UniProtKB/TrEMBL annotation:
The keyword Repeat does not apply. Keywords: Coiled coil, Membrane, Transmembrane, Transmembrane helix. Residues 93-140 form a coiled coil. It comes from Paenibacillus thermoaerophilus. Pfam families: SpoIIIAH. It comes from the Bacteria. InterPro entries: SpoIIIAH, SpoIIIAH_sf. The chain crosses the membrane at residues 7-26. This is SpoIIIAH-like family protein.
């Protein structure tokens, strides 16, 4: 059993290295600056795949809006990377709060069955646990990596890490991806890193 775990780990790390190598070989220099009136969002894609259907539905319901909708709204309002990340965080928290309110209404409704209330309680617990992990990741990114600001957003089974930084080292991207994979139990193809400035 231990050999299988080591094999899976090795294959995961090799996949991550291949994807990151390919990305850095075929991307432009990140030091190009954006016009003063727009927010530059640069994506560092690790890969894209789907979670299993139940997890994706539960997490998407928690977010309320898709990442692309939130990003478009935030970019329309934001004039800097810090404002964009702040806007993403507040919109995520609002959507989460609305979802928890909906689930709490199910819990307090006496007409609901025990199965429905148990399912609602389970989803609330999942959302709270996930929010704690996201807060921990964002705090770690700002404390350990000295980023000005960070946001971790989930959409359709994919996790995006937004960093308020003009550039980032390749080794930092790899270590951030490994940290997100470990904390959120995500696969490398489900993680992307975007720089905003």
């Amino acid at each position: 059993m231990n050999a299988k775990r080591q094999t899976v780990w090795l294959v995961s790390m090799l996949s991550l290295m291949v994807v990151l190598s390919a990305y850095y070989l075929f991307t432009e220099d990140m030091s190009e600056s954006a016009p003063a009136e727009t927010v530059n969002v640069e994506e560092i894609q690790i890969d894209a795949s789907e979670l299993d259907k139940a997890q994706a539905d539960a997490l998407k319901a928690a977010a309320g809006q898709s990442e692309s909708e939130i990003l478009k709204q935030a970019q329309a309002k934001a004039h800097s990377g810090a404002e964009l990340i702040s806007s993403l965080k507040s919109q995520h928290r609002e959507a989460l709060s609305k979802r928890v309110e909906q689930l709490s209404a199910i819990l307090s409704d006496t007409k609901k069955t025990k199965e429905e209330t148990a399912k609602a309680r389970e989803e609330i617990d999942l959302l709270e646990q996930q929010e704690q992990i996201i807060d921990h990741l964002e705090d770690t990114l700002m404390a350990d990596y000295q980023f000005a600001d960070a946001a971790v957003v989930q959409d359709s089974g994919k996790w995006t890490v937004y960093l308020n930084e003009p550039t980032i080292e390749k080794s930092e991207v790899a270590s951030i991806a490994v940290m997100v994979m470990k904390e959120l139990k995500a696969r490398p193809e489900q993680i992307s890193v975007k720089l905003v400035n």
